[in-house]
Design a protein that fits this description.
Blueprint: E1 6-9, E2 12-14, E3 24-27, E4 57-67, E5 70-74, E6 82-90, E7 95-100, E8 102-106, E9 111-115, E10 121-126, E11 138-142, E12 147-150, E13 155-156, E14 160-161, E15 167-174, E16 179-183, H1 184-187, E17 190-195
Parallel strand pairs: 1-17, 2-11
Antiparallel strand pairs: 3-12, 4-5, 4-15, 5-6, 6-7, 7-17, 8-16, 9-12, 9-15, 10-11, 10-13, 10-14
C-alpha cells in the first residue's frame, strides 16, 4: 500500500523586522551583520578556558539555480550543496510553488543570506526547537533589497529563487558547521508547499469608505 503524501501550504509574508521577530533580523548590507557564535558544549563540571570553544565567521558566495523542475545550490565552501526543492506548477492557475521536505539548523552560529544582485527571493524559516512541525514554518518574500539573518538553531533551507535564472547569494555562517537535519517527508509524511511569488496584500478599506450591505 502506497502512503499518501501530504502538502502543507506555508504562509507567505513580506520580509521585514516585524515578521521575522524571534527568528532573526533583516539587513541590507552583509557587512553590518554581527554573527552569533555559540560556545562548544562541555561535559561534567569543568568549564572551558575563557574565550575558547568558538568557531570563526565564514563569508562566501554560492549560487541557486533551477535544472528543469529541480532547485539546486552549489559553490559552498563550508556546507552541502544539492537539491533545495522541486518546482510544482498548478495548471488551473499557472501558479508556481516550491516543494521542500529537507531542512537544517546550525547549532554553532547564526546564518545570513542576501542576493548579491538584488533578485527577489524567498527565505523559509521555523523556530529553533527539536520537534519541529510543518506548521511551524513561514516563508518570507524579499524584493531583493534586503536579506535575512537567522539565529542559531533556526530551521531553514537554502534561499528559493522565483525563476530559473541563476542567483548568486552572499552568506555569513560559522566555521564549525554543527548542523542537524529534519526530513519532513520521513518524520511527518509531509512536504512544504511555498508559493514562488510576492505576497498578496489584502484590499484596503478607507475609514470613510462606505460598504454596501445586501439583505437576502
Amino acid at each position: 500500500m502506497v502512503a499518501t503524501i501530504n502538502y502543507y501550504d506555508v504562509p507567505l509574508k513580506k520580509l521585514n523586522s516585524q515578521n521575522v521577530q524571534g527568528l532573526g533580523s533583516v539587513f541590507t548590507d552583509l557587512a553590518d551583520v554581527e554573527l552569533e557564535l555559540c560556545q562548544w558544549p562541555t561535559l561534567g563540571k569543568r568549564s572551558l578556558i575563557p574565550g575558547s570553544g568558538y568557531g570563526s565567521v565564514i563569508e562566501e558566495e554560492f549560487k541557486v539555480y533551477w535544472r528543469g523542475k529541480t532547485i539546486l545550490s552549489a559553490g559552498h565552501q563550508n556546507a552541502r550543496g544539492g537539491v533545495a526543492g522541486k518546482v510544482l506548477v498548478e495548471p488551473e492557475s499557472n501558479s508556481q510553488y516550491a516543494l521542500v521536505h529537507w531542512l537544517s539548523a546550525h547549532l554553532d552560529a547564526g546564518e545570513a543570506f542576501i542576493p548579491k544582485n538584488g533578485e527577489p527571493s524567498i527565505f523559509l524559516a521555523a523556530p529553533a526547537k527539536d520537534d519541529v512541525q510543518p506548521e511551524d514554518f513561514v516563508a518570507f518574500y524579499s524584493d531583493g533589497s534586503c536579506g535575512i539573518y537567522m539565529h542559531p538553531g533556526v530551521w531553514h533551507t537554502n534561499p528559493l529563487t522565483l525563476s530559473g535564472q541563476e542567483v548568486i547569494y552572499e552568506r555569513k555562517q560559522g566555521s564549525i558547521y554543527a548542523t542537524v537535519d529534519c526530513v519532513l517527508a520521513k518524520e511527518c509524511n509531509t512536504w512544504l508547499k511555498i508559493p514562488l511569488r510576492e505576497p498578496i496584500s489584502p484590499p484596503q478599506v478607507l475609514p470613510n469608505q462606505q460598504q454596501e450591505i445586501i439583505y437576502s
